[in-house]
């Protein structure tokens, strides 16, 4: 095939082979469907292949867990490719179709998944969380530096890994880490280019890899087949959720820090704007509404909706004795306030607005990248409408997860995208009339 794209769902399989005890077995001619998954909330890329076997391959290979699968698939030989070797970890749904043919599903995952399960880390670290993550990636997971992407974290930390798996330790570091702006939204995941230990704040600030246009289904299929950036389907999974916002402390929280060194309890409150200001954002305005309840208080003033009590060294660094005798320790204590209060709230802010988008297959669309969504108003346009852009849905999004679906003659990418902000000019606020109606209800 020439190195050019003729239609949007085009793909080319350079290699799809099972690597077994007896050598390489090409299965590119008798697979029925391939699914490949990645997510910023999952540590590894995984997938499955539906195989239609008329050669007795399952019997010849005698699958026992030693097999690998090598995949090299892309739009063309040089564009938008996935090239990786995975471990096959199980075969399911094996059943005969006729006397000469059977089908089964081959499940695969990155080798590091099992490498992590087979090791434990019991080690004292006195490093930044980013340096700890690098050490785990290289020493325990055997990853090369060009396959690891780590954002720098703030502060030297003292921590003992309690005889747990590398993945568990990486997730622990992600939960506790804050970046240079004190944003506590680190995630640990693998996508098509490698493993990442980065904050959502840095991910959402990246330039979009493409602009996605959505057109309603009355657009002719032949026109859609020429639009490589055109979304074929769109579903709004969530636009807002007040209940989850309150429970997560997104609108407001209170932190009680028990400082044993200072012998005191420190109380610190935070409202939405305190938390929101810690991170970089996709668009110009927050995607939450500010409303007043029947007690004439704003939702951002109700800081008792989420209470966290935890050990803290909030005051220790201010003690003259500590400053004089152990000043280094001031930078070595965990930032418990940020990751205990703000992390959950900031992640919930991202999950408020989630879309599911079906795209022409493209391995460039992978977790951790951003896209710009252009979504029209789904209504009849009049002369006075002006811009036809739906401001409630359009804007910059982070790809949270993707599923690549490859059948015999078609490649589609289903992506779940999230955002922490909108293209509105300002944050919406409830009106006096709305509040008066609540008060009138008694």
Offer a quick outline of the entry.
The chain is 20% helix and 38% strand. It has eleven helices and 24 strands.
Verbal overview:
β16 and β17 (264-271) form a beta hairpin. It is globular, with a radius of gyration of 25 Å. It has 442 residues and is α+β, with helices and mostly antiparallel strands. It folds into four domains: 12-109; 115-201, Phage tail protein beta-alpha-beta fold; 207-238 and 350-432, Beta Barrel (Elongation Factor Tu (Ef-tu), domain 3), CATH 2.40.30; 242-342, no CATH class. It contains eleven helices and 24 strands. Residues 218-224 have low confidence and may be disordered. The strands form five sheets. Strands 1, 2, 3, 4, 5, 6, 7, 13, 14, 15, 20, 21, 22 and 23 form a 14-stranded mixed β-sheet that branches. Helices cover 20% and strands 38% of the residues. It starts with 11 loop residues before the first strand and ends with a helix. It has helices at 57-61, 111-117, 129-140, 166-176, 200-204, 221-224, 242-248, 272-276, 320-325, 336-351, 432-440, and strands spanning 12-20, 23-26, 31-39, 46-53, 68-74, 81-98, 101-109, 121-127, 148-150, 157-164, 186-191, 194-199, 211-214, 230-231, 233-238, 252-259, 264-271, 285-286, 307-311, 353-360, 370-374, 395-407, 410-419, 421-422. α3 (129-140) packs antiparallel against α4 (166-176).
